[in-house]
Amino acid sequence: MQAHENVKKWFKAARVEDFPKNGGACVKYRDKQIAVFNFTRRGEWFACQNMCPHKKEMALARGMIGESKGEPKVACPFHKKAFSLCSGENINGEEEPVTTYPVKVEDGYVYIGLTTD
Amino acid sequence: MKISDRKEIVVVGNGMVGYKFCEKLVAKQGNEAFNITVFGEEPRPAYDRVQLSSYFAGADEDDLQMAPEEWYEEKGIALYTGELAVDLDRKHKTVTSQKGRTVTYDTLILATGSSAFVPPIDGVDKDGVFVYRTIEDLEAITKYAAGASKAAVIGGGLLGLEAAKSAMDLGLKTSVIEFAPRLMPRQLDEIGAGALKTALEGLDLEILLNKNTTLIGGNGTPEYLDFADGGHLEADMVIISAGIRPRDELAKKAGLEVGERGGIIVDDQLQTSDSDIYAIGESALHRGMIYGLVAPGYEMADVVVENLTGGEEKFTEFDMSTKLKLVGVDVASFGDAFGESEENSKKVIIDNKAKGVYKRINVSDDGDRLLGGMLVGDADDYNMLLQIAQNGFSLPPDPVDLIIGDRDEESGGGQKVYEFPDNSIICSCESVTKGEICDVIEEEGKEDIDSIKSCTNAGTGCSGCVPMLDDLLTQSMEARGREVRKVICEHFDYTRQELFDIIKVKEIHTFDELLDEVGQGDGCEKCKPAVASLLASAFNEHVLEERDTIQDTNDRFLANIQRGGTYSVIPRVPGGEITPDKLITIGELAKKYGLYTKITGGQRINMMGARVDQLPDIWEDLIEAGFESGHAYGKALRTVKSCVGSTWCRYGLHESVSFAIRIEERYRGLRAPHKLKGGVSGCVRECAEAQAKDFGIIATEEGWNLFVCGNGGTNPQHAKLLATDLDEETLIKYLDRFLMFYIKTAEHLNRTSTWLNKMEGGLGYLKKVVVEDSLGIGEELEIEMQQLINVYSCEWKEVVNNPELRERFTHFVNSDDVDPSVKFKDYREQPVPAPAGWKEKG
């Protein structure tokens, strides 16, 4: 996950309760589709691009989240390509990494950190 | 290290072997000691030519790529694609491309590969005559085939048959023309080639032998072929696959020694006549031999890498053993296939014409050693035979036992992989020995297949050895007195069966509870759907209540995700019987929502292309019209297919449709370790194909026969007869027991066939449990099944009527917009997903 200090803009995405528990949902920011994941069990949030680099499907938000040896990940629903939500790396293959975004929660709202305006 | 100390390595040729050389070199040495420059003539980086045919089967270019361009960049390799090396100046040690780029080398690797050999047939220059070699060739063939109807493939070797398969896949009537009196003359003997020919003809591929093509006739494009024997064949497309010619022109021009019939001459170090220049792959002529397979090419790359990095290795003869699927027919040859290496070798042959299987092995005169052999139609024994031949294992008293197949299920007799010598090769693609794999398991403690794969590279090539890796792991654990437990993943140290018991005994209803109680961590994509399936099988509660995010995407949205991210909708049509009014409803709905419709293999109708936000609306309409969920998205009962039965059919013995409907309605919504399919046929003609289902019911004069554990799919398996001449009530009792026993004891994602194959005692044991109730659990199983049946309700109906659940069916959480990337194009008057980058006309 990218460091918060690089964030130029915090985009107010939606209310916490709009996101499923221990799951993901897709946020629209201008032309971008960003997958946001609510790791309720560990009280953490992560975000990455919605497009899976494998078959370019807009699908990661519908993927299953989980963890391997503590590292949070999401598995694409199409072919189970799994990506680390910290580094964005493809864990079980050689796909391109996904872009990850910082997330913060304030006053019941989920914000996504963007490094460009 | 100073830059100037780096050695300049130039690789000419970016095919599979040229790529492999780079991969092995950087893996061995990093990119510190060398500067690597690569020239490739083709416009794209190296791709997997062996899998070319899969390009027709829908794989795209990216799937075939060995490594993306970024890989070369990352490894500091300068890659120039679309640049043919045209000049080699050995005096100044430079290579120049056709674009005029000149680079200097310390060491030059020629991996120039081969080109297709085109015999000088009259008319060979016509449009519509192709070779089968590159992606560009395939693209041209695909384009041309759209306007053609009949293809002729000249050449009946391995590549020719591959090309024929591709032509058939393009919908063309196809003939293969071979000059020799038999197919694959280099790999198969006469009977073997005959068995292959019969099998291929059975698949509607015409095979013409002893044919010397003299003319490709036609006006501008091919229309017919003439043969030397006066024969004649109509064909409007021709693919030539008559062999390969090494690409040695650059070497020849530079004065390197080449063979009389082509090929750059190399020694055992793979050095050419210039010691700074190596040749590898199909362009190298080693001891008078050109190796036209990829495995020896990889081995050559390895030898050169070793030698360049201070090692000493030699390329000697290479084992050309190979196992292939040609147009769907298994063909393998291994070791000394023709029994020519020793005097008085004895051949042992099974020529089973009824099954289309031919097996031949050659054993030494004293009957002690296996020299080699060939297999057609059934190559399951290949790995075992290859190991026995390579390692010189002693043979059973009657060697025919090696190829006779498993008449007696699980009778054993074969040698265990774990007992192989340490130096026996298990993975021949990556040359990994049994010893290396056992070290990883026993010394490094890697006790799952994925870790073994990533530590040793075994099983990462053709993956044919993965079953052996699995056996090796199991046997190694057993040998060390370790319990072999098929635990689900790192989050639960339990088998599926144990978790099922825990869930039932402790009455656990959510994933988090189970994780808190007996697991660790947060779960993953392996354990979540497995537990979701267990919870459903245990209580049959709604799959979205409190557990939507542990379902696989199909179960999470109660529909099957398709290319482009839309979903398909399949309502239940029990037994395949549907009223005209319901048919009209489906038609009207498909029109209303712009959906594509197709009849499924399970006698239902699939409506495809629904956006996630449309799903609840579509289902509201369907439920209104009296439909319910078909569970096509779940590891659950799908359909019970039926023939028309005695109501209509003049042969029918009983009413198969009514029985199928009764069975389908009984088990609808039943979730299991994998999908479940059933079939009911009204007589032995078996029009419902019930013997290809998890449970199949076939009418007899006296009642019904019950078959179980069949399936289609990747490894088709016929269902086996469990009980005969049953009345409906008894049959349902047995079916209850059978299904519940399966649900309780199978591993996650094992179909009933796999479950039975693994069951100790096999069908005999299953019969005892289900029919004779040997475990005394029959009644318990029936009661558990009845409980699941009692709480069934249509899960889509619940969603439609529950605003909170319904709200989750949106693409964006912060906008009502639909996914802008979803696009359709018209295709045979229906909408289908448009490929990326597709633009609407006008």
Question: How would you describe the overall organization of this protein?
Answer:
- The complex is a heterodimer of chains A (117) and B (842).
- Chain A is an all-beta fold.
- In chain A, 0% of the residues lie in helices and 49% in strands.
- In chain A, the strands form four sheets. Chain A has a four-stranded antiparallel sheet, with no helix packed on it. Chain A has a three-stranded antiparallel sheet with strand order 1-12-11, with no helix packed on it.
- In chain A, strand 7 and strand 8 form a beta hairpin.
- The radius of gyration of chain A is 13 Å and the shape is globular.
- Chain A starts with 8 loop residues before the first strand and ends with a strand.
- The model of chain A has no long low-confidence stretch (mean pLDDT 91).
- Chain B has six domains: 3-114 and 246-308, FAD/NAD(P)-binding domain (3-Layer(bba) Sandwich); 129-242, FAD/NAD(P)-binding domain, CATH 3.50.50; 416-484, BFD-like [2Fe-2S]-binding domain (Arc Repressor Mutant, subunit A), CATH 1.10.10; 496-552, no CATH class; 557-629 and 794-842, Alpha-Beta Plaits, CATH 3.30.70; 637-790, Sulfite Reductase Hemoprotein, domain 1 (2-Layer Sandwich).
- Chain B is globular, with a radius of gyration of 30 Å.
- Residues 407-414 of chain B have low confidence and may be disordered.
- Chain B is an alpha/beta fold.
- Chain B has a five-stranded parallel sheet with strand order 3-2-1-7-19. A five-stranded parallel sheet of chain B has the order 9-16-10-11-12.
- In chain B, helix 11 packs across helix 13, helix 14 crosses helix 16 and helix 21 (728-745) packs across helix 24 (778-790).
- The interface between A and B is large, with 42 and 39 residues.
- Chain B: This is Assimilatory nitrite reductase (NAD(P)H) large subunit.
- Chain B: Its cofactor is [4Fe-4S] cluster; siroheme; FAD; [2Fe-2S] cluster.
- Chain B: Residues 8-284 form the FAD/NAD(P)-binding domain.
